[in-house]
Amino acid sequence: MENRKAFHTAEFRVRETDNHKFLDAYFIKFNDETQLGDNLFEEIAPESIDRSLNDGDIRCLFNHDDGFVLGRTGNNTLTLTKDDQGLYGSVRINEEDSQAMAVYSRVRRGDINACSFGFVPTQQDYEEREDGVKVTVRDMDLIEVSIVTFPAYPSTEAHARKKDVEAYRKQKLNVEKNKLKERLKNV
Q: pTM score, two decimals?
């Protein structure tokens, strides 16, 4: 499966201690259905991140740019905590990094107000509905969380998910065909 991104507007909390500056926000909201495009909806289940939180070294990036790392869980410059609402993160800003300080200043001023996360879905449920298909992500490899400028799904993200739905529908059709063949064989 391909790497995916999901986006939402965030309420950042900018805080300072005597020694450090932090940006805090929910990077993932659980059970919050998002419309990705015509007839396609997605929701992130709470259990989807458990494995990644236990096993991963997750990065906090700016605009999904892997050359612009703001922090990471492996060295405790990023802390991620799961609660009933979602995945809450706190990234400690490197005050010696002018790019990181620029992001901090833009968030503090309100110019940037969105979060995203990059992941590879490893288990998904599909629900056919009158208004389309809802995909529920049950497990993922969470690679990164990002502070982003634009909180919108690019058309490439929606297209990638539509391909997953098409593959699901094709697989479902093949299962039904095989069941029918078995019933006909036994007649």
A: 0.78
